């Protein structure tokens, strides 16, 4: 993994951001990880993966036997 110090980030943020487009950049302060910078494409992919996992979990935990008719609910909501 690529890493940079907070000082590097302060002095040259454009190069750190540019490097993060290809691979995550670990930001360290006194040799301890403080943050990760990832490019937009990777971030979007990560968010999509998390959303999919949350949706799968919700479906797995849902008791569909207690469901109500869609038409009834739509009418109640005025749709």
**Biggest sheet: strand arrangement:** 1-2-3
Order of helices and strands: EHHEEHH
Classify the secondary structure makeup into a structural class. alpha+beta
Distance between the termini: 51 Å
Outline, from the CA principal axes? elongated
Strand content: 15-25%
- Average per-residue pLDDT, rounded, comes to 92
Sheet having the most strands: 3 strands, mixed
Q: Note poorly predicted spans.
A: none
Q: Based on DSSP secondary structure assignment, what is the total number of beta strands? A: 3
The share of residues in helices is 55-70%
Q: Whole-number radius of gyration? A: 22 Å
Count of separate DSSP helical elements: 4
Description:
This protein is α+β, with helices and mostly antiparallel strands and 79 residues long. Helices cover 56% and strands 19% of the residues. The chain has 4 helices and 3 strands; from the N terminus they run βααββαα. A 3-stranded mixed sheet has the order 1-2-3. The chain is elongated and about 60 Å long. The chain starts with a strand and ends with a helix.
Provide a quick synopsis of the model.
This protein has helices at residues 6-11, 13-20, 40-61, 70-77, and strands spanning 2-5, 25-29, 32-37. With 79 residues, it is of the alpha+beta class. Strand 2 (25-29) and strand 3 (32-37) form a beta hairpin.
Brief descriptors of the model:
79 residues; alpha+beta; 56% helix; elongated
């Amino acid at each position: 993994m690529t890493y940079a110090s907070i000082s590097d980030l302060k002095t040259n943020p454009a190069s750190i951001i540019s490097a993060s487009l290809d691979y995550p950049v670990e930001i360290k302060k006194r040799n301890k990880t403080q943050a990760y910078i990832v490019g937009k494409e990777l971030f979007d992919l990560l968010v999509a993966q998390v959303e999919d996992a949350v949706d799968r979990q919700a479906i797995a935990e849902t008791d569909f036997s207690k469901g109500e008719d869609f038409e009834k609910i739509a009418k109640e909501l005025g749709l």
